[in-house]
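Let's study a protein:

===
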Amino acid sequence: MAAGARAPAPAGYRLATYDQRGHGASTPLGQAADYALEEFVADALDALDALGWERAAVGGLSMGASVALRLALDHPGRVERLLLAAPAFGWQPSAAVERFDELADGIEALGVEGIVAGMRAAGPTRSPASEQRIASWAAHERASLVLALRTVGRWVALRDPAEPERLRVPAAVLAWPDDPMHPLELAQSCARALGAPLGLLESAEQALADPPAIGRLFSALLDPSRAGP
């Protein structure tokens, strides 16, 4: 959600974030078609238009990275630089689809509060960062979250692994290991195709505990003194 993504903008930049459709404070959705990747890309274009920004450095985390990448591929004239953190969806169905479905089933049966309580009861003592991630589920409307898990979880964002090669914008990719919902192999493939640096964190836990770790890598890319491609 936008609140978790905000950080000071690098010198020379203005920062805008928003809750994507069906997430956070945005209006809950009730139709599977509303969760099509193309609709999320259209929302990003609408946000740029509303801000009056013809071109911008565009980025996202997880599903947001897939939206940013598809936006750059379909509308390259609008993207000045591309920042991908832990992309979740590539050129084939996610290996975590069954996990998404299990979560959707659990939320339908127990509600968001029941799933959160079960996660807390089943696992070992959790860090504040893990608690933050679990608690964020409660911010979603139940039916909309279930629909998101069953639809977004099946996104195929790329036509093939080489598709990003045609982009000619500076890019950076950030990832971490041992996270089936955000496979390191996908981030590595994107970085290779983009000719982009790949920054590695130790774990998703580090990203949650230290959000500026993401910003430090991307701020370096946005440094005006850095040469373009």
